[in-house]
Amino acid sequence: MTTTATPDGLLLVDKPAGVSSHDVVNAARRAVGERRIGHAGTLDPFATGLLVLLVGRATRLLPHLPDEPKVYEARIAFGAETDTEDLLGQVVREAPRPTRAALLEALPQFVGSIDQVPPAYSAKRVDGQRAYALARAGAEVELKPVRISVHRWELLGVEEDSQGRVVTADVRITCGGGTYVRSLARDLARAVHSAAHLSALRRVRTGPFDVADAVTLEDLREKRARLRPALDALPGFPVQRLSDDELAKIVRGIDVAATVRGAWGALVRADDSMLVALAERRAAADAPGGERWQPRVVMREA
To answer: In this predicted model, what pLDDT tens digit does every residue of 176-194 receive, in sequence order?
Structure first.
């Protein structure tokens, strides 16, 4: 893994089950010696998989991070619904398990732009309080439906009982941000007159970032992980190398001539490709036919 000269950059971590995303962020802070760490979405403690972290000045790139779609692999356990919608909760409803044919028939209604009621045990806010805090206190939690995007379901395999009923189903779901896979499993089961919860959940991809490229929590704790350059957080963005004169202008917020295509560009130092700024293309009123890069996120000081 490539290192950076300063504690600014991209860090991909494969979170294990049983720890919170905040635990991972704290381990990353200790590992790289930098307090400023932002993330492109957390995971529930029981879930595993990819956390995309931006460190130091690279946190400025978060609004521009290509972080969709998200891809999850999940195991749905049928027959019982829990209050948390995962294996850690208390059973609140039981129902017969469905057939494989019923599942396949129901899946299409959960693809596309759909409304989803988030789980009561979630970080959604209700009257200024976190829903999970209210739920843990025994309060009745009513959350409004949220519009989400589900691009694809893949049924990877099923375990059936002796009557041909599905005990568990392994699925891969490609979706937009803000989607609760727990609630997708809940609603799928209800659609086939069953009940279900997640017994496992793993995020394998966020936009262009893959869990196969991630370091482990143990790597962080043993300080074996190294930051990737901030430029790695912008895959697919056109790159323009800056002359010394252009570099001096960009770090002061002054635009420079655009010599590569694209609506947005990653502007880098010529000698070592270190990211200097993320810039937006604009027409130059004082130079007909010319176009300029206007810096929007500057990574270096003037």
So the answer is: 999 999 999 999 999 999 9
Strand-pair category, 166-175 with 48-55: unpaired
Q: Which of 44, 83, 187, 255 is catalytic?
A: 44
- How many angstroms separate the CA atoms of 227 and 6, rounded? 9
Same domain for 94 and 18: no
Q: Are residues 164 and 249 in the same domain?
A: no
* Each residue's pLDDT tens digit, 69-109: 999 999 999 999 999 999 999 999 999 999 999 999 999 99
Give the residue from 193, 49, 209, 44 showing the smallest Cα distance to 118.
44
- Alpha carbon distance 265, 250 (integer Å): 12
Single-letter residue type at 239: V
Helices (H), the chain: 21-32, 100-106, 131-136, 181-191, 217-221, 244-250
In a domain, 4, yes or no: no
Residue 50, judged by CB atoms within 10 A of its CB (0-12, 13-18, 19+), counts as buried
Residue 213 appears among annotated catalytic residues: no
Question: Does 278 fall in a domain?
Answer: yes
pLDDT digits (tens, 9 = 90+) for 159-169: 999 999 999 99
Determine the longest span between alpha carbons in the chain, in angstroms.
Answer: 77
CB-based contact 31:1 (threshold 8 Å): no
b/e per residue, 278-300, with b = 16+ CB within 10 A?
bbbbeeeeeeeeeebbbbebbbe
Determine the structural domain holding residue 114 and report its residue range.
70-206
